[in-house]
């Protein structure tokens, strides 16, 4: 069986003071998160306080490369099938995301992926991943 990826409409994102830098970087094709200035750990979802030590954080760029930790192809939730996955980035954080631009039935746990960006309503670019 093959299930080719098909683009689907993405809802507009919510941009506020806490997320503005993330979405600005995404429009430039860069994936970023925050790193603690005290313990040095990166974390996902970006937040002003470190979830590990409650220290202050600063923005940092990510490689955009990682490995599929878990993946599921959803065929009945709507008219367009899609793959939802946890991707563990090379920096050690794990993101819930979509896998795109491939045959969805060929996806496997442990497969290498890289970030790509898909347009949402309102012009934002949403980070997703494709096979490397």
TrEMBL record:
It comes from the Bacteria. It holds the Pfam family zf-ChsH2. Residues 23-58 form the ChsH2 rubredoxin-like zinc ribbon domain. InterPro entries: ChsH2_C, ChsH2_Znr, NA-bd_OB-fold, Thioester_dehydratase-like. Residues 59-118 form the ChsH2 C-terminal OB-fold domain. Coiled coil: none annotated. This is OB-fold domain-containing protein. It comes from Variovorax ureilyticus.
């Amino acid at each position: 069986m093959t299930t080719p990826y098909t683009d689907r409409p993405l809802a507009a994102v919510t941009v506020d003071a806490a997320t503005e830098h993330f979405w600005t970087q995404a429009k430039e094709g860069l994936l970023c998160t925050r790193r603690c200035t005290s313990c040095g750990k990166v974390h996902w979802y970006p937040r002003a306080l470190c979830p590990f030590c409650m220290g202050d954080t600063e923005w940092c760029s990510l490689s955009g490369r990682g490995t599929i930790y878990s993946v599921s192809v959803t065929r009945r939730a709507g008219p367009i099938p899609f793959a939802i996955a946890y991707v563990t980035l090379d920096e050690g954080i794990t993101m819930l995301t979509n896998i795109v631009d491939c045959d969805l039935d060929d996806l496997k746990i442990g497969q290498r992926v890289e970030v790509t960006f898909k347009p949402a309503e309102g012009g934002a670019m949403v980070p997703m991943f494709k096979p490397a």
